[in-house]
Design a protein that fits this description.
The protein is an alpha+beta fold. The chain has one domain. 36% of the residues lie in helices and 13% in strands. It is built from 3 helices and 3 strands; from the N terminus they run βααββα. Strands 1-3-2 form a 3-stranded antiparallel beta sheet. A hairpin with a 6-residue loop joins strand 2 and strand 3. The radius of gyration is 16 Å and the shape is elongated. The chain starts with 13 loop residues before the first strand and ends in a 9-residue tail after the last helix.
């Protein structure tokens, strides 16, 4: 009998805070504020405030899609 493996999801590259800021076209300060407010998907590696933060580029893309709007042709 083989053990069931958890379903894997496609993952993008992992970015640090500087990389995420460049990817999003914003500052590292803004990215850190989004993390503090829990408004952006992130991965915390390690315990406490000294933990390293990483951002999955595929999840950032999905997150951005949630904030993207198409122009309204009726306006």
């Amino acid at each position: 009998m083989s053990e069931a493996k958890p379903a894997s999801r496609p993952r993008g590259s992992l970015l640090d805070v500087d990389g995420a800021a460049a990817y999003l076209g914003t500052t590292t300060r803004h990215v850190r504020r989004l993390v503090e407010e829990r408004r952006i998907p992130f991965i915390k590696l390690g315990p406490g405030r000294s933990a390293r933060l990483r951002f999955d580029s595929a999840r950032l893309d999905t997150w951005l899609e949630g904030y993207s709007f198409e122009p309204d042709p009726d306006r």
